[in-house]
Design a protein that fits this description.
With 322 residues, this protein is mainly α. It has helices at residues 2-49, 53-95, 112-128, 132-142, 148-165, 170-178, 180-185, 190-203, 210-216, 228-236, 257-274, 281-300, and strands spanning 303-304, 311-312. Strand 1 and strand 2 (311-312) form a beta hairpin.
């Protein structure tokens, strides 16, 4: 995903320059159009007054000069954008490999067993990413049979994550309460952070949610010894509820990045309970193995003869007879 982000940043720069160029061009052309209209009015007036033709010639020359300068300026600025467009292509070439098959042996996937392992790895990755329908289609096309006991945890985790992304905490809270002891064994703070975020969502509802927030505060009792300071901050914020938390010293409680953080914490702790790595094995292979294989390929394709001053490709190397 980092590679996509790099290309996207270059693309955003190009789009920004195009938008800026469009606005500036419209402003300059509108100004030029106004000048031409004024010139036309002046020419009509000069014609009625039987003015000297030298004055008309000077006025027309000045107008033509402005038009020429405007066209040259717009062409020059448009030419500058070409450099930004080419940077997008360079970013794509730099971050993505057009051909990586050369780093893999041709017969590495010939074995049905290896094809099965590859399909299972891809299916697991799709389950992790929440692409359940795509994973099912791949299973049908490849003939891979995935046991329901393997799919069920991913289905549940994705359901909870989807709810968290819509700021619905109830499925995650139910899961955390059901797995409370196992989370405590991992020294996880997930359940407390979920209750804390739910309490903050009540604070965000204003004074009408004050009574409900006070009642919900009872959920903090099991965490009082470990998170006393955090609980004190939450309870102190109730004083400013009537005037708005966003206008109080506790406005940091309303920061939106907490939702992304709780998704990451849930993913980490849920994977730990299931005995899974947080990162997909397929992602790890792509991010670590492919660059290493490319370096290995480059090294293998270079030959250095102890008697020759330059490196050569194997296809260009010559056999020496002694």
């Amino acid at each position: 995903m980092e590679q996509c982000a790099c290309v996207e940043r270059e693309l955003e720069k190009v789009l920004h320059r195009f938008v800026t160029y469009g606005h500036q061009s419209e402003e300059r052309l509108d100004e030029l159009l106004r000048n031409v209209c004024e010139l036309r009015s002046r020419l009509v007036a000069y014609g009625v007054q039987d003015t000297d033709l030298s004055v008309l010639h000077q006025t027309m020359a000045q107008c033509c000069k402005e038009i020429k300068e405007t066209v040259q300026m717009l062409a020059s600025r448009h030419k500058d954008i070409h450099g930004s467009v080419s940077k997008v292509g360079k970013a794509i070439d730099r971050n993505f490999d057009a051909e990586v098959s050369a780093v893999v042996a041709e017969n590495v996937w010939d074995s049905p067993e290896r094809q099965k392992y590859l399909s299972e790895t891809i299916v697991e990755h799709l389950y992790r990413q929440g692409m359940l329908s795509v994973a099912e289609d791949l299973c049908q096309e490849s003939g891979v049979v995935i046991d329901m006991s393997m799919k069920q945890p991913f289905l549940e985790l994705n359901r909870i994550l989807e709810a968290l992304r819509t700021q619905d905490l109830r499925p995650a809270l139910e899961w955390a309460v059901a797995n409370r002891q196992r989370l405590l064994d991992l020294n996880s703070t997930l359940e407390f952070k979920l209750h804390r975020l739910y309490f903050i969502s009540l604070l965000n509802g204003g004074i009408s949610k004050q009574q409900e927030a006070l009642q919900y505060a009872r959920h903090f009792q099991p965490f009082a010894s470990q998170h006393q300071r955090d609980i004190q901050i939450l309870m102190g914020s109730l004083v400013y509820l009537r005037h708005g938390i966003e206008n109080s010293p506790y406005r940091s409680l309303l920061e939106t990045d907490q939702w992304a953080e709780i998704c990451n914490i849930f993913t980490r702790d849920a994977c730990a309970l299931l005995g899974l790595s947080v990162e997909s094995p397929l992602n790890l292979c792509c991010h670590t193995a492919i660059p290493c294989l490319q370096c290995l390929k480059h090294s293998l394709l270079r030959l250095k003869c102890p008697y020759c001053p330059m490196e050569q490709n194997p296809s260009d190397a010559k056999q020496i007879f002694f």
